[in-house]
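Quick start: read one record
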Amino acid sequence: MKFEITTFDGAEAGSVELDEAIFGLEPRADLLQRCVRWQLAKRQAGTHQTKQRGEIARTTKKLYKQKGTGNARHGAASAPQFRGGARAHGPVTRSHAHDLPKKVRALALRHALSAKAKSAALIVVDDARLEEGKTKVLAERFGKLSLSNALIIGGAELDQNFARAARNLPQIDVLPVQGINVYDILRREKLVLTRAAVDALEARFK
């Protein structure tokens, strides 16, 4: 499909032919949900842990004899029912990551790109460069395109001035094309792709 290219100054810069197999799919919410869940689970630290019975610094001697006291039968004071004892079935250090097939991840990324294109939230720019790394200058350019909440995908290498200027803008993310992912695409209102990013994505999915 044919798509107009613009600049960050709001001027026209020609057009580009977007691949229907990448930007023209009917978005599937189930694929997007599976991929976002996989991403968020994978980045969880999983370092939460409580002490098990073997880790409690307390004597394991039997509290009192088994019979004849009239009290309940108890063993060590590290049991969960006692104050200062272990926690029964508490969390342990583990990985929350789970597997998701590579083909499903690739398909989800194509559906995320198609979702932005279908909802008119996709913008293609000629380049993402800045002569000086000034946030004020970049904010004025973004204002011409009404970009207040956006993910900007550049080429294989980002322009350092552009990345530095965008770093201070809230709700603006800048990533190289190899860092594009479903979660970041969906969490921002607009998706901005450079011409180099479009070429790299089409080469990636061939």
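Residues 107 and 138 are 33 Å apart (CA to CA).
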